[in-house]
Amino acid sequence: MRVWRSGDDGDAEWAWGLRVNEKWIFPVAGSAEDGLHFYEESSIDDNDNDCPGSDGDCDDYSINETLTVSVKPGEPINIWSRIIEADDPGPAVFDPNDVLPTYDHDHFGPGNFSTGLLENSDGAYEVFYTITDVTKASPTLGSLTIGAPQYGPNADTGGVVRVSGATPVSLEGSNASKLEYRIAANSQPLPTSWQFDPTSPFNIPITGQPDGKVKFQYAPVSSEDIVAERRSAIVELDTTPPVLTLPAPITVFADQTAGKVVNYVATAVDNLPGPVDFSCDTPSGSVFPNGKNAPLTTTVTCTAKDTVLNTSTGSFTVTVVSPFGYIPDFVILGREWVSISSGVTVQTGNVGGFDQSAGVPSQAGFEVVAGPSAIFQGGSQIATHSDRIEASTHAGDVFYADQFVGGNNAVLVPKVGYVPLFFNMPAVPSFTAGGPNLVIAGTQVLAAGSYGKLAVNPNATLTLSGGNYYFTSIEVKPGARVRFSAASTLHVTGRVLVGNGAEVKPTAASGVLPHDVVLYAGGTDGPPNNPGDAIAIGSNAVVGINAYAPSGTLSVGSYANATGAFVGRRVLVGSNVVFRKDSVFVCP
Questions:
Q1: Is the pLDDT of residue 16 over 80?
Q2: Sign of the torsion formed by the C-alpha atoms of 146, 151, 153 and 156
Q3: Closest by alpha carbon to 421, among 335, 312, 515?
């Protein structure tokens, strides 16, 4: 800045000041009065050259100083100049009454400028100044980009954008070399220190803040550390997934073959307002399946996502149980009907009729008729479409779908069930047979293979050594014995007759159990035997097998002792038979 004075006076002390945008700028400390500070210069150059003035005869005095002032790009520079003088040695004393009016000038760019003439009692003064733009270029501002996931702005978010901890917040489109930022919860002051990201695109990590409104300030910074305009933004941070409330494990009884419709209550609640995407892979109100051969547990998985995809997953179980058991739980099972005579004892295992039919011939409309005086022990159950429980019969749960009749002094608990009891009856393998007819006398061992008719004479003993056997028919005559020293499966294309007092069971001490021996008899009822059942087990017989007559009647004579499982199209049981379950049959 140069200050020119016109006049004939001698040396003078000069004091001047520069104010930029309401702030005084001073190159050195100077006089101070009334809160204003001025630079003082007492060394005046008097070179007797002409200076501006009316008479052309004056001394020129100049003060040359350089001031560096930092302002924002585009900000006007407001100049306020004051000049005083003092004739006495020593620092000038500021007298507000002796100060010329100030001169203000706004300027937006570089150049040479003059305040014009300022007059006081000693003459006219002209102040020249030069503005030289030495400001280094600021980086371009770029734009703040908020990525996905995001939600809003709307009423749920209070008019700002909601973001998750995984949502990128970045500055794009700036030529800066780094980004400065500072961040805090909206209720807290911003930190005094700045953080920096030197890698473009520049990111502002908002994690580490509590959920809710988060404010941040940011600015691009050039390679020469020129900071561009600092801008501010507010987002709503949500890092908390919804809270699931799920049922405890559920166990229900099936009320249909397929299972049961199960209703449950499961909810998801988020910590911030807004919709929650909530679903369970098996919705409430679905049919939860029943197992074919045992209770079936279904795991229900529920998932909840909030507006910015914070996700919660949880699960619970629903177990569906058949109220009357499964095929492996039955010791007696008929596709069409079961008739159990007086005095029969079922020590273990259930009794059932698979589906609705015309019923037992002597008791039309009832698929299971039991008693009188039959006994079902150890929690044995009865289940079919319609049940008739005769007088003095002791049973446990008796399930029916249509009708139930209980005789005098019958002890039982009637319950509503359903039919068919299972998805299907046990499967029967496809087979044929043929070969030499065998007549067994004395004691013999028979290897696996395919044969014609098998006849075991009275008092003879035949041991089957294990494997698959194929016969066109089997007749075990009264008093004969058939033993099994290893697991065996008998495939009979015709009928099987076990005479009175005969035995068909595993060899003692062999380790073979009744469920290891399976007999399939594909024949139908009819002559020449009377009653000509597909499988007929005589009175006082002892059997330890799993026997299945899919196309005819399986009958067991009075006072027989039967361990295993006995399944047929129809099952007819004589009086005083004792049954124990050891089943291998399953639903296919």
A1: no
A2: negative
A3: 335
Instruction: Let me know the angle formed at the C-alpha of 264 by 261 and 270, rounded to the nearest 5 degrees.
Output: 145
Question: Which CATH number do you get for residue 270?
Answer: 2.60.40.10
Q: Which of 217, 218, 213, 204 is nearest to 238 (CA)?
A: 213
**Is residue 448 situated within a structural domain?**
yes
- Which pTM does this prediction carry? 0.74
Q: CA geometry: angle at 270 spanning 266 and 274, to 5°?
A: 110
Assess if residue 563 is contained within a domain.
Answer: no
| DSSP 8-state secondary structure symbol assigned to residue 31 | -
Can you point out the beta strands (E) in 329-466?
330-340, 345-346, 350-353, 359-360, 363-364, 368-370, 375-376, 382-383, 386-389, 394-400, 403-406, 411-416, 438-440, 443-446, 449-450, 453-456, 461-464
**Owner of token pair 């039959």:** 374
Q: Is residue 507 part of a domain?
A: yes
Contact 430, 446 (CB under 8 A): no
Amino acid identity at 402: D
C-alpha distances in Å from residue 585, one per residue of 67, 381, 425: 105, 18, 9
* Nearest of 304, 268, 274, 302 to residue 286 by alpha carbon: 302
pLDDT digits (tens, 9 = 90+) for 182-227: 999 999 999 999 999 999 999 999 988 999 999 999 999 999 999 9
Taking Cα atoms as reference points, which of 423, 354, 347 lies closest to residue 383? 354
- Which contiguous run of DSSP H or E holds residue 151? strand 150-151
Give the residue numbers spanning the domain of 165: 143-237
Calculate mean pLDDT across residues 457-479.
98
Sign of CA dihedral 133, 137, 138, 142: positive
Contacts of 84 (CB under 8 A, 6+ apart): 14, 15, 38, 92, 94, 95, 98, 99, 100, 120
Look at residue 197 in the predicted model and tell me its pLDDT: 97
Diameter of the chain measured on Cα atoms: 165
Number of domains in the chain: 5
Angstrom distance (rounded) from CA 533 to CA 527: 9
